[in-house]
Amino acid sequence: MIELHYWPTPNGYKIRLLLEEAGLEYRIVPVDIGKGDQFKPDFLEISPNNKMPAIVDHAPGGGGSPLSLFESGAILLYLADKTGRFLPRSMRERHQALQWLFWQVAGLGPMAGQAGHFRVYAPEKVEYGIDRYTREVSRLYGVLDCQLQGRAFVAGDDYSIVDMAIYPWIVPYEAHGQSLAGFPALSRWFETVRARPATARVYEEPSTAYSSKQPLTDEARRILFGQGGPPG
User: Fold this and answer.
1) What is the CATH number of domain 91-203?
2) Average pLDDT, rounded, for the chain
């Protein structure tokens, strides 16, 4: 059994996509980031960076005591290695795939997150921030569109953890000030991933993620965007 410490954000969705695709048994432990659950001592024991998602694998590969992991990219890589699925096995193809996983965690995720913040959540409109991050996300969409030309999926012919990492950050494209109309390869890929049964299962529940465009309370904003500590 895998415990998934989770809230429905793009990074949370990544892990659920893999768990559903692989058919692994898991239990969701909600981490309500708008109420400060990410600062609770029991959560910090497994995720010292006070961010979700995190997992606790009670039957880790290789045996031994339960294994806890935080950081969505690291979790995806661990689960792919554990199951032997959704990541190429040859050294060359594996590293060619991993460069796109790191592209997502270091580029698309942070830039799209900032675009969403300045466009949706910031308490005041900062035009420089909106323009800066909206333009950068558009540039990254162009990079991804080029990569997908002539390929079924981002890392090649097979669906992989790379696609699972990227897709949740494309879902809220409108909130990030984007359109898929100018990116035909990206648009085709997006519809292909959306049509997968595991994707449908993950996204069938109502979302409380920022892409829902639901306004934040002042308290939730203070907790989410405070400068370094638990609510108090």
Assistant:
1) 1.20.1050.10
2) 93
